[in-house]
């Protein structure tokens, strides 16, 4: 039997290759419950298939990420994203607790919703079971191949770099000047990243406190503004590897806010008594939030009619368009935005997606 050629890797390089491969596996393969600014402080609610008019298991294009706010027409579910840096599989699971009696209830539904041990996604058994879904699934083979190629490239690059270092020295324990410079550079990058996120968190806390004080002091003369719980803003690969719960608090930022405008007639009446427009003050503070990505328009108010506007004026839409960091705008009802308002938002915020509160196509 002919002898197969060996790669000739150093023993330590084999260990590094195995560890890197394991790390890439837990980053790419298991699913992570959606925890971005689309779901923010809400338990990843999406519209149920029956509420959206689709039978279970027959959704060709499930409206993932659209049910941002809970209401009577939505149902709590868990949406898992598999893959990094590209999502190759997205699956939605409605726990058995929230299923109707007429819906099918496989045994695995009883294991949802899941809470990973220590908040680390890959420690949850259900995260490794991509075939479990009962409210829609979306799979991309191209994204899967791309993730696999990137994973192989990372393993090969790290192994090659370590092999070069291992072959450069004959002693078991030897630190060169190049190693020291590399370690210091890595430490400086980590400290700079942490310091940057800490400064952002401090600024966000100051801005939200100022905004809340301003709204409380001016009573019914300002828009109603509220914020969700901070969301982890660390790189996705780090969240998948360590879990958001184990990352520093500085990596959590204000990404989701909600605002409800007053009736236009009432606002105009109050402006005569004030030298500044309360709405302008509120949006000036919102613009200073660097990590604000999602804005909801009155979706969680108990009474959205009353003193609050059921449709937005162009002046209010222009204020929203000034928030250049927005990526998602959640409206309570399609009637809130006129055709002219939608055109204005499409021009000023080309990267912002407009969604209805409970998955209705906009």
Topology:
Blueprint: H1 11-28, E1 31-33, E2 78-82, E3 89-93, E4 137-139, H2 141-168, H3 177-218, E5 224-227, E6 231-232, H4 236-242, E7 252-253, E8 256-260, H5 264-271, H6 278-287, E9 294-297, H7 314-321, E10 328-331, H8 339-348, E11 353-356
Parallel strand pairs: 8-9, 9-10, 10-11
Antiparallel strand pairs: 1-2, 2-3, 3-4, 5-8, 6-7
Record keyword descriptors for this entry:
single chain, 362 residues, alpha/beta, five-stranded mixed beta sheet, four-stranded antiparallel beta sheet, disordered N terminus
Overview in brief:
With 362 residues, the protein is an alpha/beta fold.
What does this structure look like?
This protein has 362 residues and is α/β, with parallel strands linked by helices. The chain folds into two domains: 11-143, no CATH class; 199-356, no CATH class. It is built from eight helices and eleven strands. The protein has helices spanning 11-28, 141-168, 177-218, 236-242, 264-271, 278-287, 314-321, 339-348, and strands at 31-33, 78-82, 89-93, 137-139, 224-227, 231-232, 252-253, 256-260, 294-297, 328-331, 353-356. The strands form three sheets. Strands 5-8-9-10-11 form a five-stranded mixed sheet. α1 (11-28) packs across α4 (236-242), α3 packs antiparallel against α6 and α7 (314-321) runs parallel beside α8 (339-348). The chain is globular and about 75 Å long.
């Amino acid at each position: 039997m002919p002898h197969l050629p060996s790669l000739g890797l150093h023993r330590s390089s084999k260990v590094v290759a195995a560890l890197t491969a394991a790390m890439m596996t837990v980053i790419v393969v298991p699913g992570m419950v959606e925890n971005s600014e689309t779901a923010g402080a809400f338990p990843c609610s999406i519209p149920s298939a029956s509420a959206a008019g689709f039978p279970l298991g027959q959704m060709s294009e499930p409206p993932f990420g659209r049910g941002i706010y809970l209401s009577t027409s939505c149902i709590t579910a868990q949406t898992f994203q598999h893959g990094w840096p590209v999502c190759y599989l997205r699956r939605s699971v409605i726990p058995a607790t929230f299923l109707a009696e007429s819906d099918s209830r496989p045994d695995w539904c009883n294991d949802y919703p899941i809470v990973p041990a220590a908040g680390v996604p890959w420690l949850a058994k259900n995260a490794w079971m991509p075939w479990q879904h009962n409210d829609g699934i979306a799979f991309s083979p191209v994204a899967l191949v791309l993730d696999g190629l990137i994973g192989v490239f990372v393993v090969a690059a790290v192994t090659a770099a370590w092999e070069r270092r291992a072959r450069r020295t004959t002693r078991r324990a030897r630190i060169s000047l190049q190693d020291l410079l590399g370690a210091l550079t890595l430490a400086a990058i980590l400290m700079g990243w942490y310091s940057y996120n800490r400064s952002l968190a401090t600024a966000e806390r100051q801005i939200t406190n100022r905004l809340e004080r301003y709204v409380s002091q001016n009573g019914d003369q300002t828009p109603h503004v509220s914020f969700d719980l901070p969301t982890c803003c660390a790189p996705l690969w780090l969240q998948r590897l360590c879990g958001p719960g184990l990352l520093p608090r500085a990596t959590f930022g204000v990404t989701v806010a909600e605002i409800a405008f007053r009736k236009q007639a009432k606002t105009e009446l109050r402006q005569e008594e004030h030298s500044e427009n309360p709405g302008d003050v509120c949006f000036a503070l919102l613009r200073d939030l660097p990590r604000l990505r999602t804005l909801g328009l009155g979706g969680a108010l108990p009474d959205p009619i009353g003193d609050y506007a059921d449709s937005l004026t162009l002046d209010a839409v222009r204020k929203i368009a000034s928030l250049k960091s927005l990526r998602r705008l959640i409206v309570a009802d399609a009637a809130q935005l006129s055709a002219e308002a939608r055109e204005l938002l499409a021009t000023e915020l080309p990267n912002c997606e407009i969604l209805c509160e409970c998955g209705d196509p906009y």
